[in-house]
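# nightly structure sweep
# worker-07 picked up a monomer target from the shared queue
# config: single-sequence mode, recycle default, output format = structure tokens
# input follows
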Amino acid sequence: GLFLATVRGHGTVWVQSLPFSRLAERVLAAAPSGGGRSRDEGSVLGGLGRMFEDR
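# output follows
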């Protein structure tokens, strides 16, 4: 759909335009397989940060 908005004030606006189905695919691809522990598991984003690497 098309959404129109006016944003006022200081700061940064992040616009997420990735369809939910593709976002879900990237989340699953970035998740550790086999129930193992990830080295960045304790970070704020954990494995979610990897879904945007090299794409």
